[in-house]
TrEMBL record:
Ranges that cross the membrane: 6-27, 64-84, 90-109, 121-138, 150-171, 232-252, 272-292, 313-334, 346-368, 380-401
Keywords carried by this UniProt record: Membrane, Transmembrane, Transmembrane helix
Protein name per the record: Uncharacterized protein
Region (Disordered) residue spans: 176-196
Amino acid sequence: MVDAGLFVGGVVVTLFAGILNGSWNICVKPDAPALVRAVEPEGEKEGWNYDHAWMSMMSSAIPVNLAICFAFIKPSSLFDIVASSTTSDLALICVFSFLWGLGTYGFGLSIQIAGLGMGTTLNMGVIVVVGTFLPLLLDVQSKLNTASGYTIIGGLMICTFSFLAAAKALALKDSDEASLTPPPTPPLPSTDLEDPTSASTIELNVVTTATKPPPPSSLPPSPSEHSTFTKVTVCVVSGILCTMLQFSFVFSEDMRNIAETRYSVPSALSSAVTFFFAITICPIPNVVIPLIKLKRNGKLHYLRSSPHSTSNYLKTLFLMALPWVVQSHLYGISAASLLGPDYGAAVGWPLLIVTTNVTGLVIGWKFLGEWDLAKPETIMYIKFSLALSVLGLGIVSIGGLL
């Protein structure tokens, strides 16, 4: 049994990790508050866009992660641990870390096209179902074909319905926004008037002023260029790829054992061995893809030439890279040490997912106005989805304790 104080501490740390996990991507939203926004507002052509900020964040994540890993494990010990591993294990860790990187890029893309709230909810919905079911498949006899396994599967089925309800909410939200967007104002016919002071000219000017559309900031958002099906598909693919991090942990288990037994690294910190690879390799596609896009569209130079470059670099470092890396390590510490093996996966994992979902939805609702045009039926579906998610994850948690 875990100590009560450690259990409470583990819950608090997991809650904090979930808040960080659901909020670190607000900086790449053009409609975010200026204080935290690392991209130019909607409609601005000059300066940083999503690709600049994402590439900067992922580049910053590497030194942040290395600093944390070396603080947990001495560099010389860490390199010895790596040297003692097999080539096949190292190759597989790298492959699955790269796939996780592709999933992370897709996660950022889904935040852009589906919104921070719904992008987070749909991704986490896939991650919790696939990420929880995979360990059961890896050990069918002792995990899947048991009362615990059947209970967990029951919870995951409810989580699947939660995902479907969230997808329905996204479809209704897209429909709500499209129905409230005014049609474009047709241009007035050109009139060739010789006397600018004539009555007809004055009348035309009055008509022009009266029919001039309001500024873009006062109009409802225009319909998304991406269909709901595209948004959900991106979330599904990225969510599946994000679960590949689990395989990096599977194939680095021997290295973590060596760290704990030979170098006396506490079990709470041994996950730094896995993250040493994962968060070093994950940024590769997340830097290369935006770099290629920026070079093609001729906007790479804004990384330096934008008047907000310095502040944007600092925002992507302290408000994106640092929270993203820290929440990964915090959950590892909480699950391995504070909550212990009995409660780490059973309590910590569902709690992390729920906290991440709620944080993303609240930020999208309160700070980004993503639900301002949503009708009551749409709000009902997202609340229903969240309720199903909590119920399903609660059953998963019970199954993990059996």
